[in-house]
Amino acid sequence: MKKEEIREMSTADLKDRLQQMEKEYLQQRANHAVTPLDNTAKITADRRSIARVKTELRQRELNNK
Fold it and tell me: Mean pLDDT for the chain?
């Protein structure tokens, strides 16, 4: 996800998407531990996407206070 896409989403949508992304990320890590993935860069990209969403949620939280 790009920064612009994240900023356009509502807070509730971001929270739902974050839960989904974290679930997929953990599943990929578990699968990679058992059998190596073809594209291991996807794990890194997913982790960074999760961080982007968390950063946006935190910024919104701080702006609302």
Answer: 94
